[in-house]
Amino acid sequence: MERSVQAGSLGCPVCGKTYPITDGIARLGAVPPLSESDTVLTAESVEALVGLSGPGGYLALVGVGGALCRNLAEQAEGVHIVGVNPPSDRRAVPMVSLLEAARIPLKTRSVRGVVLAPGYAFSSVWLEDAKRVLLPGLRIVGEGPVPAIDGLEVIASAGGVWVGMPT
């Protein structure tokens, strides 16, 4: 059975703080004022660049369009997509959780890959968070200029897209 929470609240059992869920999006904090832009990435290119093979786990898409979230959920069967700060074309679909936050609100070393949309991919705050939530030895994909940040080795770049691995 597929279920989706469209409205309600989400509570933290540790601090007791609650966060609203509206329109299927958990609103965990203020969204940074970054402009929306189209992505050059496809579900197939994300799968290849991140190195997804096989079901299971989570993939974080930060600021990436809803169409890519939907296509990845269908393409990468069994991988749960977490869309952080999705643009206005967002839609709730099975195997996709949508969140709004000022940082990536996921557990350290918990995701199989992170995709950063333009604007996010060059921000040291978002890059540090992407490195933090990524499982060891896996990849971050970003759109935009190649970042120069300690602890991230860019292993490939072309056409405005780069792939990096934390060192």
What are the key terms here?
167 residues; alpha/beta; 10 strands; 17% helix
Stretches with pLDDT under 50, minimum 5 residues: none
Principal-axes geometry comes out as globular
Main-sheet strand order equals 1-2-3-6-5-4-7-8-10-9
Task: Give the helices and strands as they follow along the chain.
Answer: EEEHEHEEEHEEE
Beta content comes to 25-35%
CATH superfamily: Vaccinia Virus protein VP39
CATH architecture assignment: 3-Layer(aba) Sandwich
Examine the coordinates and then state which fold CATH places here, giving the name of the CATH topology.
Rossmann fold
> Span between N and C termini?
41 Å
Helix count equals: 3
Mean pLDDT: 87
Summing up helix and strand content along with how strands pair, one would put the structural category as: alpha/beta
The count of strands amounts to: 10
The CATH top-level class label: Alpha Beta
The radius of gyration over CA amounts to 15 Å
